[in-house]
Every structure is written in structure tokens, then in C-alpha cells.
Amino acid sequence: MGLIRFLIIAICSLYIIRSLVRIFLPMLFSSVINKAQEQARQQQQNYNQQQQPKPDGRIRVDYKPDAKSSVPDSEGEFVDYEEIK
């Protein structure tokens, strides 16, 4: 008798827990997603505020290559090859 009572209580409690999870889990996920979206939106706004608009018609160079080259221009580039006859 005790085993049957335990099984009935266990099945009922699992059914109730499953029903509650189906109701409350989507609400929990939606609130977490909304918070993440709001944080991303705020970070994007902060990033956009930090960016200064570039004036039109101006050229800005961020990278300047080294003037020295490892191979002099007089030598050019050579590729080793074997002649096949």
C-alpha cells in the first residue's frame, strides 16, 4: 500500500511540476532575452556616442608601411625552379 501511495504522489507531483515549468519557463527566458537586448542596445548607443563624425572630403591614413624592404628593388623576386627536358 505504501508503494502505490508513493507512486501516485510522485506521478502527481511530477505532473504539477511539468505544468508549472511549461508556464513559467518561457516567461523567464523572455525576461532574460529582453535584458540582454537592452544591454546590447545601451552598449551600441554608448559606442555610437564615442564615435566622432569624420569631416567630408578629408583623407586620413591609419597605416604607414615601412619604407625599407628586405629585398632591394634591383633584385626583384626570384622563384627557384627545375628545368624539365
TrEMBL record:
Keyword Metal-binding: no
TM annotation in the entry: 6-25
Residue segments, region Disordered: 40-85
Biased composition (Acidic residues): 74-85
Pfam families from the UniProt entry: DUF4834
Protein origin, superkingdom: Bacteria
Record field: compositional bias (Basic and acidic residues): 55-67
Protein name: DUF4834 family protein
Compositional bias per record (Low complexity), positions renumbered to this chain: 40-52
UniProt keyword annotations, A-Z: Membrane, Transmembrane, Transmembrane helix
